[in-house]
Amino acid sequence: MGTEDEESARRYYNKSEESFSSKKCLTWFKVYTTTLEPDILGPEGMEKFCKDISVDPENVVMLVLAYKMGAKQMGYFSQYEWLKGLTELQCDTASKVQSKLDYLKQCLDDPNMYKSIYRYAYDFARDKDQRSMDTDTAKAMLQVLLGKQWAMYPEFEQFLNTSKYKVINKDQWCNILEFSRTINNDVSNYDIDGAWPVMLDEFVEWLRQKRSTR
To answer: Of 33, 121, 194, 207, which residue is most buried, by most CB within 10 angstroms?
Structure first.
């Protein structure tokens, strides 16, 4: 009899802990919105949301979460995006999102998923009034996405700081990832006659000159 009671209690506990409620999820969303824009979670709400789930706004996990939501603009979640992403994750409380943080980080371990998130980041972060991304925004996003895994990133950022480039287009953005994945740190396998953007030709030339004068 005791075993049946324990099993019943376990089922009740799991149901109460794990069952997802769309209504509860939407009520939670409203905590972060204003009466003027009840269907949009904006920068102030985002800051509070990040605090509630104990994640720095600049942590790459927030980018993965935005990707899961299909968010169209950095710093904002629509009600539709919120419900879409958190329904997929089955999260209607801050603690449930916290329990998914490791899973969200692990999404980046899949090379194909990583590439999708990297490509998504371009349209997500750029100014919607511009076709290209300004280099300041690009550097911030590249730091989040590649800063810890691409040994040449500090030098690439230095190159951008001293170059003529004020914006980065999507072709350049996508090729930066490919470059980071395939080109040796000594750039010995870089083919200047290959199909790389001129920006990367110039980076390699700049890098070789910089290293030769050490």
So the answer is: 121
User: Could you tell me if residue 75 is left (phi over 0), alpha (psi between -120 and 50 degrees) or otherwise beta?
Assistant: left
User: Tokens at residue 86, please?
Assistant: 């958190």
Scored b (16 or more CB within 10 A) or e, 108-145 reads beeeeebeebbebbbebbbeeeeebbbbebbbbbbebb
159 close to 207: Cβ distance less than 8 angstroms: yes
User: How many other β-carbons are positioned within 10 Å of the β-carbon of residue 95?
Assistant: 11
What pTM was estimated for this model as a whole? Answer: 0.86
- Separation of alpha carbons 173 and 121, rounded Å: 10
CB proximity list for 195: less than 8 A, separation 6 or greater: none
**What is the Cα 150 distance to its own chain's centre?**
16
